Structures
1.
Amino acid sequence: MVVELIAVGTEILLGNIVNTNAAFLSEKCALLGLSLYYQTAVGDNEERLAETLKTALGRSDVVILSGGLGPTQDDLTKEVAAKVMDMPLVDDPHTRRRIEEYFKNIGSKVVTDNNWKQALVPKGSKVIDNKNGTAPGVIMEKNGKIAILLPGPPNELIPMFNNDIFPYLNSLQPEIIYSEMVKICGLGESLVETQITDLIQKQSNPTIATYAKAGEVHLRVTAKAKDSKEAKKMVKPVVKELKERFGRSVYTTSESVTLEDTVIGLLKDKGLTLTTVESCTGGLIAARLTKVPGVSEVFKQGLVTYSNRAKRKLLDVKKSTLKEYGAVSEKTAKEMAKNGAFITGADVCISVTGIAGPEAVEDKPVGLVYIGCCYKNVVTVKEYHFNGERDKIREWATVHALILMRECILEG
Amino acid sequence: MVVELIAVGTEILLGNIVNTNAAFLSEKCALLGLSLYYQTAVGDNEERLAETLKTALGRSDVVILSGGLGPTQDDLTKEVAAKVMDMPLVDDPHTRRRIEEYFKNIGSKVVTDNNWKQALVPKGSKVIDNKNGTAPGVIMEKNGKIAILLPGPPNELIPMFNNDIFPYLNSLQPEIIYSEMVKICGLGESLVETQITDLIQKQSNPTIATYAKAGEVHLRVTAKAKDSKEAKKMVKPVVKELKERFGRSVYTTSESVTLEDTVIGLLKDKGLTLTTVESCTGGLIAARLTKVPGVSEVFKQGLVTYSNRAKRKLLDVKKSTLKEYGAVSEKTAKEMAKNGAFITGADVCISVTGIAGPEAVEDKPVGLVYIGCCYKNVVTVKEYHFNGERDKIREWATVHALILMRECILEG
């Protein structure tokens, strides 16, 4: 089945927003095994939108349109699709009530007239409720072609796609698609690929796809089968095999769980508290950990000791250590982690000191980073050499701090 | 003049990468006063790319293609464009030498055979040197139509566009475009717009366009004139007027300067040092400040006092304050800032305490944030109510911490 994307919105053509919906929808379509050959963005212009939609319906089975479903006059995706597919707009009482409810829930008393425009739907279409906004989604089927209309804001589009459109598209196919994600940290992409060459070569169903992230590799295992029960059964032994091959490097098999979630979860499970002491990452590790709601149970404080003086004053790093070995050294990372744990009374303390650039310091190269982790009074320090610019080095150091922390706790 | 974008790459259609080039190029084209009606993404497929390029050349004057200029067999943008425009590929000795130089500079001794594919260019085209990679850019002009081929990686595309393609497109037009950016912080978009309604209404050249960011509004003043000297002369009084109307809220008129750059610059100019003490932002302020190279001159340390105990132990916040007013209170923000400055000996200390959600704390609502700034022993505390989810509240609190710090130093 061939699918195609059309993003509607003059703000995209002006470069005011990045079309992230296209990447989200494309990845999901790939996962569904659909062929996607074109993504188009077009403005809120009746003629051009109609032309684009006709072309798309001519060459693809399913066209997914996003955006242009707002209440104002310049939003015209639904109107144009209704005309092109010859399915005139009619009032949908269910959506009318839902919009009333929506405004009541957000405490707004006045529903303006133009909001009722959003309760109009193409005759004979399937209406998809929007749980995060007023514009409904719409599925239009006619003459073997399908147009799917989704609201533009990602916080409306993403849940609507995941909850309703994904299962709908899945149900159209002769075989059901089911996938699970195996997330691996601390191993490089090529190393991971080498270790599963045999699996990739011998299997066509399920398939294994690799995605490289900073410090992580995600493996998606996808099976096609006549029903979801059978597909799950096919995915299961492959996921098991991957978990066996990569052991502790697999930190989750859940799509929505991040590395920081895992680390915080591990600390919670073991009843441990944590301190971060950062130099070149400058607060990034603390900021990333505190993205996780409920982190306060384990994370009590963090220190950003950017200067040598701060390393001495706040962390009691010895003057002689800084003088003899330098701020960016194994010795300094070790003292930072050990003293950080002692001073704050935390069970775990992670330290980072390095050279993020753009200029080399202490005759040491840009990208040299030491990460220390103190757990049960034992300090482990590792040396890293990261490539790239300042931002990238800081990001990689942050990820590797989380990875080292996880390793030390699991092994300690 | 009508321009159109085509991004080439199967990785875009698979959703593996977000097409940020489209937003970048679109914003620049808008700035040049060009009309852009379509953005398309298509895979590395000869037939579909040729079809897409023909359609684009049929309805637009200039087509900008990005991606598909790599050395491997599946990269075929140049080959397809050469065929469609009937400008056969020929060897370009200049590019050949540049590629040799490039490999020499990165320390690679072996240039593989397929790299020489990148030295082929359409006959009669203009070759644009790539300073950050091997693939050259190409400008193809024929029968009143123009195709511009750019490398896909943003770190190659962006400088090439800014240095070579922008001036080229500018020179094609009867009038030159010139613009300056006025960056405003701490005022909402609608307030800013209200204050310049008269300017926007009365002027068509120069124009003023507004861009809303978290806590900031950027105003782009753009003039069209017969040459750049005249355009600059037209922009000047408008920028001056905007600076007068918004006074200190204007933090820069330089396109590349960020709010954190400005704050760090201000501290440097005044020879001041800074400490951050953060609760709900959890290190984000420190992380944002340390994005700026050379920040170590003014930023010596930051504390993330996430728990009440950490606020007491590390910052000497009174137990009675926490008990009576709560951790999220004006009183606590005040003590955090004052004590943070005292304990670390910094000239300026910025404090943040708030409720980022998802759940309310101490019977206080999600989004309530207090930000304190201690400067010259005077503490200013402001109360904020931010909307949105955890990430957004933390981001807005971070921006407003920078804004408050700037205000206090300028006024202090």
Note: The first strand of chain B starts at residue 2 and ends at 8.
2.
Amino acid sequence: MSTNSFGRIFRYTSWGESHGAAIGVTVDGCPPGIDLCACHLQHWLDRRRPGLNRFTTQRRESDRVEILSGCFEGKTTGMPIQLMIRNRDTRSKDYSDIADRFRPGHADITYWQKYGIRDYRGGGRSSARETASRVAVGGIARRVVSALAPETRIRGYMVQMGDSRIAADLADDDEIDRNPFWCPDAAAAEKWATRLDAIRRAGESVGAIIECRAIRPPPGLGAPVYGKLDTDLAAAMMSINAVKGVEIGAGMAAAELTGSENADEIRPGRSGPRYLSNHAGGILGGISTGQDIVVRFAVKPTSSIRVPRRTISLKGEPVEIVTKGRHDPCVGIRAVPVAEAMMACVLADHLLLHRGQVGENQGTIGKATKSATTSDED
Amino acid sequence: MSTNSFGRIFRYTSWGESHGAAIGVTVDGCPPGIDLCACHLQHWLDRRRPGLNRFTTQRRESDRVEILSGCFEGKTTGMPIQLMIRNRDTRSKDYSDIADRFRPGHADITYWQKYGIRDYRGGGRSSARETASRVAVGGIARRVVSALAPETRIRGYMVQMGDSRIAADLADDDEIDRNPFWCPDAAAAEKWATRLDAIRRAGESVGAIIECRAIRPPPGLGAPVYGKLDTDLAAAMMSINAVKGVEIGAGMAAAELTGSENADEIRPGRSGPRYLSNHAGGILGGISTGQDIVVRFAVKPTSSIRVPRRTISLKGEPVEIVTKGRHDPCVGIRAVPVAEAMMACVLADHLLLHRGQVGENQGTIGKATKSATTSDED
Amino acid sequence: MSTNSFGRIFRYTSWGESHGAAIGVTVDGCPPGIDLCACHLQHWLDRRRPGLNRFTTQRRESDRVEILSGCFEGKTTGMPIQLMIRNRDTRSKDYSDIADRFRPGHADITYWQKYGIRDYRGGGRSSARETASRVAVGGIARRVVSALAPETRIRGYMVQMGDSRIAADLADDDEIDRNPFWCPDAAAAEKWATRLDAIRRAGESVGAIIECRAIRPPPGLGAPVYGKLDTDLAAAMMSINAVKGVEIGAGMAAAELTGSENADEIRPGRSGPRYLSNHAGGILGGISTGQDIVVRFAVKPTSSIRVPRRTISLKGEPVEIVTKGRHDPCVGIRAVPVAEAMMACVLADHLLLHRGQVGENQGTIGKATKSATTSDED
Amino acid sequence: MSTNSFGRIFRYTSWGESHGAAIGVTVDGCPPGIDLCACHLQHWLDRRRPGLNRFTTQRRESDRVEILSGCFEGKTTGMPIQLMIRNRDTRSKDYSDIADRFRPGHADITYWQKYGIRDYRGGGRSSARETASRVAVGGIARRVVSALAPETRIRGYMVQMGDSRIAADLADDDEIDRNPFWCPDAAAAEKWATRLDAIRRAGESVGAIIECRAIRPPPGLGAPVYGKLDTDLAAAMMSINAVKGVEIGAGMAAAELTGSENADEIRPGRSGPRYLSNHAGGILGGISTGQDIVVRFAVKPTSSIRVPRRTISLKGEPVEIVTKGRHDPCVGIRAVPVAEAMMACVLADHLLLHRGQVGENQGTIGKATKSATTSDED
């Protein structure tokens, strides 16, 4: 029931504010005996860390994660794992002028109306800083996925910045780590760099679309009809700050397809069904087919901009506001590792849930091994 | 933890298969003392019922809902409410040929792989027939919303069929109930009728986009950061059969906006904040602003088509399949009342959750009454 | 969050009132592929059915259970299972005089104060009739336990009526089914029969203590520290009508033991640890040891008696009340099959939860097979 | 679903091991605007702290609690509250000899069998040290109770040590804080001191019975039938280390009562119903009557004793064990503040849940104000 928790068996509760003493996450339900050290988590946190390049906020956070419980001699014990990240560079003075006025596009006004109190320093609980907790727990989830579905990999990347979308046929996985945008198209990345520099200098911001893929997942994950894999993925991604839309497979464009175009035809593969296309995004009836699971989401432009915007004050008076703090001109960039983390959490949870209710996949097709699926490339 | 349940305080569990004895829903957490008779629910079920016109499946179901518990002398008692709808027109013979082969785009293959058993008659649990349960419980949720937020109305409508999208400026609310598409644009509805007739005759199907709006909701609904109102709406809509994408406010198009375009500016209104635009879709930081809550989702084309598709059999052999049963050429039509129902469930639940944790809105702005918001039209 | 639900993975929601149309239970999370027909459940319901002998309420209910969903061709499908039992012999007139006055010891007054409405017919939702739902779902849970832990048996019996307690050393398992009290001591049963006849004729009632045992359960069930097996068993039993106390193993008497008396010593057994005593009731640190799991609970005397009691009316006036309906002089008798059902539900759920998080027991002792335990009798 | 969480709306997750870096608790669902500083929590922690007198473990822990999130300027914000207590005096060497053998009566063997890994230092997660987290969160829960039910007080005390039970008619509330046993009977406390000295010197331990009372609670808390107030209290108390039995009101002794003895008669009081007795322990049908809520539980004797006990080693060999660490001869003493904390958590949660589903009590009796109840003393 907790509104700051996510997951069913692999379940975590996130806590902390942007400028409080620390942020962190309490993880319950992790299987025992999994190798885990802070270094595993640090690797992923370093990808999300602010200040990595000129396109992300210049806040300097080392984002050192501590494991306070649930591990013993380098392995998980099955007990709750507490992860804590101390906040260090919290220049609270930067935020003093937003204490009595509401930044448009931010949670300032709704938190105030609802709770009658808000930690306005850096957005408090509503800050994107909370996503560091997600990346940390995602690091644990990845290890659970590795243990239970060793072939599965998770990969996020940016496919659109502003109105510039990459061409699917130019995408190159190896390129993703080579540019500051996690963009699989080198030419697009270069264009985006020029453009984002201009946006940053103008004190403006821009939105983006992120795609995240689980490659070679096992079939059979997910459950009808409110625990569908796509339902949980949609919730996972929509819960990330600034996300305004989520798509699975063909997504919103599915509206424009006919039934014969949309139905992914099936052929016998070497070791299981082989699908001729993947409009479904790897999920049928809420359950994974074994094809790549494909989710996409839109991140709105950062609302913290230097362009003056009209708003009201706590006293209800009309005022203007300019946000002077350190911010991301395209917060979508840092959403990439967050998307991967959320994908990992959803998969880890469904792997355990599947094992709990069903054990292992029960149905066989032809003489194929239970649960095998052949990828499209066969 | 139940994967067939939805909600936190106002929580329901859906049960039943397309061609079993009955379908239904067990609703827990409904406040006591609310007027409720089957007639209230029947009204909404009749809008979703199959066979209403030539554009929906010709299956004849009276969809009579019975209230088996939780009501006494016409009022809810606060106890679990059991709603049951008997299945009547279950022509099981129509489905006999899909017992040993998997319909592309359907859950047939994943249910089989996971569970090793599936009720193939009419899709069993994965059938859109489950949405009748949603509409029934949505009828109860509407009464809860009426009791706690009497000004709030909920309205769904279709904004796109195939690639034909209505122009926002031609939308007319009064038109919605006058055509078989719940389309707010009479001219578009006429065009769609012609088009859908052709699609139906060709044994094909087409996708659609539905928009659903909560009009004049109270501010303050929703909670950080995994119980956000938009997160719960995304999960609610994505859990509906055939949905492949969900958007809040500007949705996927938010990627193309700049920060200054996207930030909905605020001015003092007669009785609270007045917003100059609504890219946020009525939600900031996961909490309702008091503006209209706007959610949109894409429904893929029905996978049951008469066009032959390639697939495999239970034995793993390559076969072709044609779906001969009675089906909707555009299942999006019947998704409209379902969307309204899910919106109602999310609001009812968050109204109770808000009352539970917070009581009533705690913050005031200027001299305004707590929790008031002025709509855009001021 | 639903307050009418129980369990985590194997989770059910109970619904219905004593004199409504029906009662029932919605079961989610049951593994697929388990043989299930109504006959399996009927067997257990028949043991709890009212009117079996002169010591239970003379209400005539056939208690026919229908399976409305979640089964296909005699096997569970992994989908929600809906069980419904129609109410038949609902002599509502018997209860008309309790509509405006509150029976002491009953939920009448608290339901009224809280909800402002109550289905007073037969106690409505607070009636022990709800326990039929428990017995029905317990029948499913037993089949899950059989599938996952085939050696485990569940056995309930009455160990005390009024102040008459059976001597542990005279207990004979084979006796349990031979007398109307599920009493393992034939002599005690005879004494109880005489005594209960007198109590019944006096219009009085009497309390009882029930013991329920899981015999040869697997070790490893349960989880720290709020999902302990004993915690869940305590909740399970305390949720049964009229239960006022729950004990595990030595129970309340553990207070009188010294540490050396209480610690169950361990020796190497043929195929695992062998315990020399079982004060712990088969649970250490919330996790089963593999010894018998022993739970005991006290059932208060039925509050529905013919002896006049003082109370107040709806108008707040002092009145007297005599309960004339058909009732059990010792409701503890029918609590025996209910206790077994709840034990089965707790075990089924923990078997699935254990499989989900841990897979199978991970630790070995000596050369013994994982998870084996030798019973005391070795 | 998390097994380390407790509560529904006011929900916390406990984490940490006895000899890890820290222990703590993540609290979600706390209402906003409640005054809270670490000092409020420290007050209660100091009552539970080890080393207070010669009858509790000599481990020296300052038990300083830090509030890491969810508070702003001395008030709760409605966001998750993270409480952390650093472990300081962790003499791990004391425990090195229990790494390869299982202490009878402890969780050592079950944790090992289930998880295949255990933090054996001080019992790790299964240590009673976890109860410090309960006391800390209980401090927050008390403030929620104060805010919503200002008249309600919570009071725990010890009523039995070994076989020595206090006489109810000699109980004096003012005495509770004056002796090291939280015993309301001065003479008994003196006797217990002599006795416990002997037990301690013998390297032995002894059990105890604790009673906890909520005084002047509001009627209407609790919900049928698996969210009963007594069910949640039973789970709350049974989840505490070493607890083997839980009683509400008359408890196990209810078995010996007749119906007419047991039914608490009702008379009109000055401002609501007045009960002539309280066998029910303040709860009817799972819902509070407004009388004192009375719960009692037995704590087994500490299993860590200096008397040699037979057990087996990791290799399965027969060995003897003596526990040399610092331990409580009667762990029941420190269970008193823990019981109060758990009672506070259950009440806080049900106050919020009640407000959520029902708002305020709906039924009136006579002309009395809604929800008032007159205490027995009227």
Note: Chain B touches chain A through 125 residues (CB under 8 Å).
